[in-house]
Amino acid sequence: MRKFNTVKTFSNNPALDERRFLFEVVGISNQGSNNLDYPIRQSGRSFIAVPYSRMNQEMNRINRLGGKIINITPIGINTPIQGQGLSSSSNQTTNTKPMTQAQEKKEVKVPVNIYRPKNPFVGKCIENYELVAEGGSGTVRHLTFDLSGGDLHYLEGQSIGIIPPGEDERGKPHKLRLYSIASTRHGDKLDDKTVSLCVRKLEYENEKGEAIEGVCSSFLCGLEEGADVSITGPVGKEMLLPDEEDATIVMLATGTGIAPFRAFLWRMFKEQEQNPDYQFKGLAWLVFGIPYTENILYKEELEKMAKEYPDHFRLTYAISREQKTADGGKMYVQSRVSEYADELFELIQKPKTHVYMCGLKGMEPPITETFTAEAEKRGINWDDMRKQMKKEDRWHVEVY
Fold first, then answer.
1. Is 84 part of any domain?
2. Confidence tier at 104 by pLDDT (50, 70, 90)
3. Among 167, 177, 180, 181, which residue's Cα sits nearest to residue 216?
4. Half-sphere exposure (CA, 13 Å, Cβ side) for 398?
5. Residues forming the active site
6. Percentage of residues of the chain with pLDDT beyond 90
7. Are 178 and 255 found together in one domain?
C-alpha cells in the first residue's frame, strides 16, 4: 500500500484549514455525477490541488467518478503546483513537471509459517492467569509462552497455531487451532522471546444436553506454568497494523476479539522506548463489546491508557447485559457504531483511516447496514467504497 504523507485531518487548527494537498489520481471514468465547478481529466493520471477544508468533498467526488487516490502530498498555501494535466479545487492550474513523491518508509517483511504442523516449535508456558473478574461470564485466560531457542517471530495482528496433545475420536492427532496474538512483536516481557494469547474456554451443551468443552481451549486454559506447548506459524496478513504513525485506527471488538487490538495498543502506547522507529501520533478508537463489566478484558490497562493519552486513544464500551440503546435494546458493538455513525463515517473517508473488526461475525451485517445508510446520505455507494478501502488495505475483518 502506498504511504500517504498527509497531516492529521481531525485537527481544528485554522492554519491547517488553509493548507492545500496534492491528490494524485488514476482510474477516473465518465460514470457518476460531477457537480463541482472545476475540471478533471477523464483518463490517465491527474493531479488535483485541494484545500484542507474541501478534502472530504473531493474524495467523495473522485470515488463517484470511479477514481483511485494513489498519493496525497501536503503543499504550502502559496506553493506553486507542478503537474501535467493538473486541476485545482481552488481554480488554480499550471502545466509543468509533476511533483516527486516523498520517500517511503522501508516496510518490514511479514513472517509466515516459520514453523509448520509437521515440525512445530515447542515452547513453554510461563504465564496463565484469569482475565474475567468475579461475577463475570465464562473463563478467559491470558497465556504467555517462552520462545527461547527458536526462531518464531511475528508482527501485531498475526496468529499462531496451537496443536493440543492427544488424539481425536478417530484416533488421529488433534488438528491445530489458530489464535490471534495478543502481544506486540517484542512480547509482554519486551525481550523478543515470548508470545501471548487471550483464550476463552469453549463450554456449551449439545443437542442431547451433554456438557461439551473445547479441546484446545480447555487444554490451554488448564495449562500449568512450565508445561510444553506445540506452536505453529505465524500466519496472517489481514489484520496487520499500518506503518503510518499518524493513522486513525478504528477497532471494533467483541470478547477475545480484543487480542490483536491489545497488541496494537501496547505497541502504540506502552513501548515507546522499545520502538524508536514507531512513535504513534494518530488516533486509536476502540469499541469493545462484552456482556458484563466484569468481562472487560485488560480493563485496568485500557482505562489507564485512555486517561494518559486522551488526545490519541478513545475507549468506548458496549456492555450488552447492562447498557441500553436509546430504544431500550441491548447495547452491542453494532449499536455503538450506529450511535456514532456520522462521526465514524467521516473518519473512514480519510485516506489514513483503517477499520478493523475482530470477534463474533454477528456484528458485521448490522455494521454494514449502518455504513450503507451513512454512505447513501452522502451520495456514495458503500459496497464500492468498502471494496476500495479493501484494495487500499484500510478495511480489515476477522470474524468467526
1. yes
2. very low
3. 177
4. 24
5. 179-180, 358, 398, 400
6. 62
7. no
Q: Tell me if 74 sits within 8 A of 5, measured CB to CB.
A: yes
Residues 303 and 228 reside in one and the same domain:
no
| 129 lies in the same domain as 229 | yes
- The x, y and z cell numbers of residue 226, run together, are 512450565
Domain count, the chain: 3
Ordered DSSP codes for 233-266: EEE-STTPPPS-TT-EEEEEEEGGGGHHHHHHHH
Q: Are 262 and 182 in contact (CB under 8 A)?
A: yes
- Strands 228-235, 20-26: parallel, antiparallel or unpaired by DSSP? unpaired
Smallest CA-to-CA distance from 295 within 266, 316, 317 is with 317
Q: What is the CATH number of the domain that holds 366?
A: 3.40.50.80
Q: What is the length of the chain?
A: 400
Say if residue 234 is preceded by a cis peptide, omega within 30 of 0: yes
pTM: 0.72
Highest mean pLDDT among 90-99, 152-161, 361-370: 152-161
Please give the average per-residue pLDDT across 161-188, as a whole number. 93
The verdict on 254 and 227 lying in the same domain is no
Distance separating the N- and C-terminal Cα atoms of the chain: 26
CA dihedral 32, 36, 42, 46 (to 10 degrees): -130
Between CA 370 and CA 253 the distance in angstroms is 17
Contact 251, 261 (CB under 8 A): yes
Task: Answer yes or no: do 255 and 284 share one domain.
Answer: yes
Q: Domain span at residue 319?
A: 248-399
Identify the pLDDT of residue 28.
64
Question: Rounded to an integer, what distance in angstroms lies between the CA atom of residue 286 and that of residue 302?
Answer: 10
Question: Is residue 37 one of the residues assigned to a domain?
Answer: yes
